[in-house]
Automatic annotation (TrEMBL):
The lineage of its organism: Bacteria, Pseudomonadati, Pseudomonadota, Gammaproteobacteria, Oceanospirillales. This is Ribonuclease J. Pfam families: Lactamase_B, RMMBL, RNase_J_b_CASP. It comes from the Bacteria. One of its GO terms (molecular function) is RNA binding. Keywords: Exonuclease, Hydrolase, Metal-binding, Nuclease, RNA-binding, Zinc. Residues 32-226 form the Metallo-beta-lactamase domain.
Length: 559
């Protein structure tokens, strides 16, 4: 080889580009709390900032992703990009945004919902909201970013197309392929095919319904199904659905009009979403809902009530209707209740309670299992395969689902000929490039629990104490120690919390404590005496109540 050819070979060699980094902190291996970060050469962009719904912790209903791992290594996104307005994608903004204070980029309807949430926490003037136009490229945090319209169960859902250096990536957000969504734009299928034709490195894809074969049902089919069912009913009809499903709300308005009924919306969230959709011109042609207080002027067969509570939420409009405690409406024997929703895993017991309450009061229930009155907002297998055919990505990364959902999405991709797949976990820092994705390190990830107006770690002491109290109860001892002239102890009161204790058992514990305390202990340090009292009470409760309660002691010492 001569010198000239050697020089030429050296000249055409190029340093490979730095990897595109992917860091999920919520929504990988779980449903809810979606938060993903993308980084390139020390610049970071976040997509979505959602909350999740907690179960099994008394007094705690929601959680947000734990971002302390970012703070430890000083990673701070320069932009927050929002795909759509569901709570599991925007609900953590009031809790986490103040730690970043970066601009938030989204569309008008979603911005409306973010503002509604924000005003419950702080002054709206603090929030930096920037409106974007779909199918337009923006330069944000070193990335070229484009919002690509997709159909979902809320208006203005988008996939996010990222380009940086030689890397291309599409983050789907929540999506489905619905040719007739009733409300909102169609999926920009032509644009997706163009992205695929230009070459797509990585697809980060919604996995929620990957275990389901076929295609998801269209919202237009649901409207038809609701009309067919309701047109045959001769009593009051109550329909419960997700308040954010504006297409379903609009469809029910059309069904009410077509079947000679007036529509009423029950539930604060339902009212709030109606106002947001109306302000953004998504409900043109829908008949105006009448106030619940005016239902008394209408015969039952002319009433169609749409309400919150499709997941059995305590305090929701449906929960109060089922219990007979709603201040504006009481259901009657023979009324129909339609569940235009699916049961989200974990809500089965809450819904069973609602079902039983309604049935005992003489209502007739209908669900999606019997009639085509609900459609999911997420893609089934054939929709995923269609998207893969359009995009032809080199790599698929399944997110937005528990592991079984991710695993099935991976299988669908592998069967479709996708070269690389990688199932991430929250906290995995994944390097994306021309080859297989690789995990380069792991950051702290977890959940901060929302307790009242504060955030706490999952292992917060007061939460574990509350959990223990809810299961084992508590005992509070109030004692007086008389040191002179004759040392003795007097048990003033014993308070039991959450324990089934008879008067005789309380008297027995009273005597047990009085007789078991040695006079010599009365001169001990208060902490020693307290320990002995706790031990005596604990052992007694374990023996006679089969409980291990939290025990607190209050001692008044008199000389």
């Amino acid at each position: 080889m001569n010198q000239a050819s050697s020089i030429a070979q050296v000249q055409i060699r190029r340093t490979p580009p730095a990897p595109l980094l992917f860091l999920p902190l919520g929504g990988a291996g779980e449903i809810g709390g979606n938060l993903a970060l993308y980084g390139y050469q020390d610049q970071w962009l976040a997509i979505d900032c959602g909350l999740g719904f907690a179960r099994g912790i008394p007094g705690v209903d929601q959680w947000v992703p734990d971002i302390s791992g970012l703070e430890e290594v000083k990673i701070r996104p320069q932009a927050l990009v929002i795909t759509h307005g569901h709570e599991d994608h925007i609900g953590a903004i009031p809790w986490l945004w103040s730690k970043w204070r970066c601009p938030i980029y989204t569309t008008p309807f979603t911005a409306h919902l973010i503002r509604d949430r924000w005003t419950q926490f702080a002054d709206l003037s603090e929030l930096d909201l920037q409106l974007i136009k779909p199918l337009t490229q923006y330069q944000l945090a070193g990335f070229q970013v484009e919002w690509v319209p997709v159909t979902h169960s809320i208006p203005e859902a988008h996939s996010i197309y990222l380009k940086v250096a030689e890397h291309t990536l599409l983050h789907t957000g929540d999506w489905k392929l619905d040719a007739a969504p009733v409300v909102g734009a169609l999926t920009a299928s032509q644009r997706l095919q163009e992205i695929g034709a230009a070459g797509l490195d990585t697809l980060v894809c919604d996995s929620t319904n990957a275990p389901n074969a076929g295609w998801s049902r269209s919202e237009a089919e649901v409207q038809t199904g609701l009309k067919q069912v309701i047109s045959q009913l001769d009593r009051r009809v109550v329909v419960t659905c997700f308040a954010s499903n504006i297409a379903r709300m609009y469809s029910l308005g059309q069904v009410a009009q077509a079947t000679g009924r007036k529509i009423t919306l029950l539930g604060r969230t339902m009212q709030r979403l109606y106002q947001a959709a109306k302000a953004n011109q998504y409900l043109e042609g829908m008949p105006a809902p009448i106030p619940a207080r005016d239902l008394g002027y209408l015969p039952a067969h002319e009433q169609l009530i749409v309400c919150t509570g499709s997941q059995g939420e305590p305090g929701s409009a449906l929960a109060r209707l089922a219990a007979g405690t709603h201040p504006e409406l009481e259901l009657e024997v023979g009324d129909y209740v339609l569940f235009s929703s699916k049961v989200i895993p974990g809500n089965e017991l809450a819904l069973e309670k609602i079902y039983n309450q309604l049935l005992k009061r003489g209502m007739i229930l209908m669900t999606e299992r019997q009639h085509p009155i609900h459609a999911s907002g997420h893609p089934a297998q054939e929709e995923i395969m269609q998207l893969l055919q359009w995009l032809q990505p080199s790599t698929l990364i399944p997110v937005h689902g528990e592991y079984r959902h991710q695993h099935k999405n991976q299988e669908v991709a592998q069967a479709s000929g996708i070269t690389y797949t990688y199932i991430p976990h929250n906290g995995d820092l994944v390097a994306l490039g021309r080859g297989a994705p690789r995990k380069v390190r792991e950051y702290k990830a977890g959940r901060w629990l929302i307790d009242g107006k504060q955030l706490f770690a999952q292992d917060a002491l007061h939460l574990s104490e509350r959990q223990n109290l809810s299961q084992q109860g508590g005992v509070y001892l109030h004692l007086v120690i008389q040191h002179t002239p004759n040392p003795h102890v007097q048990v003033l009161a014993i308070d039991f919390w959450g324990l089934a204790v008879t008067a005789q058992l309380e008297q027995d514990l009273h005597q047990h404590l009085t007789q078991s305390l040695l006079v010599s202990l009365l001169e001990s340090a208060p902490s020693v005496l307290e320990w002995h009292l706790q031990r005596l009470t604990f052992n007694w409760c374990k023996r006679f109540l089969a409980k291990t309660p939290r025990i607190k002691v209050h001692i008044l010492s008199l000389n």
